[in-house]
Amino acid sequence: MGCLWYNLPMRKGQIMSNEQKEKIRQSNLGKKHNIPDENKKHTFVKGVPSWNKGKKSSPEWREKLRRVRLGTTTSDKHKESRRVHWTGETNPRWKGGITSPERIRFLNCRRTARKHNAKGTHTSEEWEVLKRKYNYMCLCCKQQAPFITLSEDHIIPLSRGGSDYIDNIQPLCRSCNSRKNTKTINFFLNVSIVDKIS
Q1: Which one-letter DSSP state was computed for residue 130?
Q2: Residue ranges, the chain, pLDDT below 70
Q3: Which of 65, 67, 95, 109, by CA, is between 20 and 30 Å from 52?
């Protein structure tokens, strides 16, 4: 059997001489390495649409596929194996059980700050300390955590050049945060020591 590219006899285990390599190199100068046409439609090229994009399947082909699939169902055993594979620590996207709603909210806030090119950053621990300091209370409406969901509010909004440092963040419920919108209001000034303790 000959070599696919150079039409030379295959010599398993033998090494080509430098002279032979040079001959092959010279003969290939200026040639473009093309993918054979029969393989082109199966090769993925970034930015190039699929060969069958926009082409409609013929009614005969669709009917043939329908008949092939007719009566086929996923067995309970297979469903169970997929369920086991995609739950908990066996899931390929498992990240150690840290995707709690609170964690997701925190990551979304950080993403928003990055989008606004805000200076600084803070940790989830700093945010937790701040909430605990004010007894998990919204500084605007004075309601506490079991009845509301606290959200990070930037005193000077990110859209107006505010930073993402913890000293520019105050705990507000979602409703108060939405109402505040892009105004610069510091609710820390309205909080007394009695409010913090109660």
Answers
A1: H
A2: 1-12, 33-43, 97-99, 192-198
A3: 67
pTM (predicted TM-score): 0.49
95 found inside a domain: no
CATH number at residue 182: 1.10.30
In whole angstroms, what is the distance from residue 33 CA to residue 39 CA? 13
Instruction: Write the secondary structure of 134-195 as one string of H (helix), E (strand) and C (coil).
Output: CCCECCCCCCEHHHCCEEEEECCCHHHCCCCCHHHEEEEEHHHHHHHCCCCCCHHHHCCHHH
| pLDDT tens digits for range 128-185 | 999 999 999 999 999 998 889 899 999 999 999 999 999 999 999 999 999 998 898 8
Whether residue 169 contacts residue 130, with contact meaning beta carbons closer than 8 Å, is answered with yes
